[in-house]
C-alpha cells in the first residue's frame, strides 16, 4: 500500500507541475492587448465585410451616444493559448470600455481559429446583464449563426440583445452551466478531482495512526497563477470615418460574463 501511495503522490505532483507550466507559460506577464482603436469594432480576424463592419460600428456609436453604455466587438485570428475569459476582461480594463464611475461597458470577443467567443461585462452592467444572459446569447444567438458561417448575423443580434438587456428588456431563455465557458475547463476539472482524491487517500492513511484519528490538520493551499503573455495583437482603427467613439471612458471590469465555442 505504501508503494502505491508513493507512486500516486509522485504522479500527482507531476500532474501539478504540468498543469502549472501549461496554464502559466509566461507567469507574471500581462496579455499583449491590441492598441485601442477609434471604433467600437476591431475586426482583426476579417470575419466581417467592410460594409458590415461599418454598419455595426455605427449602431454601437449611436447607442453609446444615446445611453453612455459602451458595447465593443473584437475579433482576433487566434488567442495563441491565452484563456479567453481572462483575456477579454483584461482588454476591457486596458481599453477602459464604459464610463469611469459607471463601469457600463461590455466586450464581445471572438477568436476565429480557436472557435471561441466570450462576452465580458463591466461592474455596472452585471446586474442588468448577468452571466445567465451572456450565456444565453452565446449559446442561442452567436453559436447557431457562427456554425453556419454567419458571423455578422450572430454579432449583430448579440449586440442588439445586449442593448435590450442593459435596459432591462431582455430575459435569458435558459440557465447557464456552472462553468463560465462551455467545456473549456474539463482538463482543469479532471486535475482538481485527481488532487482531491489524492488528499482524501493520504488523510485517511494519516488518520489511521495511534491518535484515534483526532488529528488537527492545516488546510492545503494551492496558488494557481494567472496565465499571462499573449503573443498576438496589433493596433488599428476602423478606417471608415464616421467620427470617434466615446465609449472608452475609463470603465472597469470585475470578471462577469460567459463564453463558449462553436
SSE layout:
Blueprint (H helix, E strand, L loop, with lengths): L1 H22 L17 E3 L6 H18 L2 E7 L7 H12 L2 E2 L5 E7 L4 E7 L8 H17 L3 H16 L19 H22 L40 E2 L3 E9 L1
Parallel strand pairs: 1-2, 2-4, 3-6
Antiparallel strand pairs: 4-5, 5-7
Helix pairs in contact: 1-6, 2-5, 4-5
What is this entry, summarized?
This protein has 262 residues and is α/β, with parallel strands linked by helices. The chain is built from six helices and seven strands; from the N terminus they run αβαβαβββαααββ. It is globular.
Describe it.
- The chain is an alpha/beta fold.
- The protein has a domain at 41-171: Diaminopimelate Epimerase, Chain A, domain 1, CATH 3.10.310.50.
- Helix content is 41%, strand content 14%.
- The protein is built from six helices and seven strands, in the order αβαβαβββαααββ.
- The strands form two sheets. Strands 1-2-4-5-7 form a five-stranded mixed sheet, sandwiched between helices.
- The longest helix has 22 residues, at 2-23.
- It is globular.
- The N and C termini lie far apart (46 Å).
- Residues 17-29, 175-180, 182-189 and 205-242 have low confidence and may be disordered.
- This is TPM domain-containing protein.
- InterPro entries: TPM_dom.
- Residues 41-162 form the TPM domain.
Amino acid at each position: 500500500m505504501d508503494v502505491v501511495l508513493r507512486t500516486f503522490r509522485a504522479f500527482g505532483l507531476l500532474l501539478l507541475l504540468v498543469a502549472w507550466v501549461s496554464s502559466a507559460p509566461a507567469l507574471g506577464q500581462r496579455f499583449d492587448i491590441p492598441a485601442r482603436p477609434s471604433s467600437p469594432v476591431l475586426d482583426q480576424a476579417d470575419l466581417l465585410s467592410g460594409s458590415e463592419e461599418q454598419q455595426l460600428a455605427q449602431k454601437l456609436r449611436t447607442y453609446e451616444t444615446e445611453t453612455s453604455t459602451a458595447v465593443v466587438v473584437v475579433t482576433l485570428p487566434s488567442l495563441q493559448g491565452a484563456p479567453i475569459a481572462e483575456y477579454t476582461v483584461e482588454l476591457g480594463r486596458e481599453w477602459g470600455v464604459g464610463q469611469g464611475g459607471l463601469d457600463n461597458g461590455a466586450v464581445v470577443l471572438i477568436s476565429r481559429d480557436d472557435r471561441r467567443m466570450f462576452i465580458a461585462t463591466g461592474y455596472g452592467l452585471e446586474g442588468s446583464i448577468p452571466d445567465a444572459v451572456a450565456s444565453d446569447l452565446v449559446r442561442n444567438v452567436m453559436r447557431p449563426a457562427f456554425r453556419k458561417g454567419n458571423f455578422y448575423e450572430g454579432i449583430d443580434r448579440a449586440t442588439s440583445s445586449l442593448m435590450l438587456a442593459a435596459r432591462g428588456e431582455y430575459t435569458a431563455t435558459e440557465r447557464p452551466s456552472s462553468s463560465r465557458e462551455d467545456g473549456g475547463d474539463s482538463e482543469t476539472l479532471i486535475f482538481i478531482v485527481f488532487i482531491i482524491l489524492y488528499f482524501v487517500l493520504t488523510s485517511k492513511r494519516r488518520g489511521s495512526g495511534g491518535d484515534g484519528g483526532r488529528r488537527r490538520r492545516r488546510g492545503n493551499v494551492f496558488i494557481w497563477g494567472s496565465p499571462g503573455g499573449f503573443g498576438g495583437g496589433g493596433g488599428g482603427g476602423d478606417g471608415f470615418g464616421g467620427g470617434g467613439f466615446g465609449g472608452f471612458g475609463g470603465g472597469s471590469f470585475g470578471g462577469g460574463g460567459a463564453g463558449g465555442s462553436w
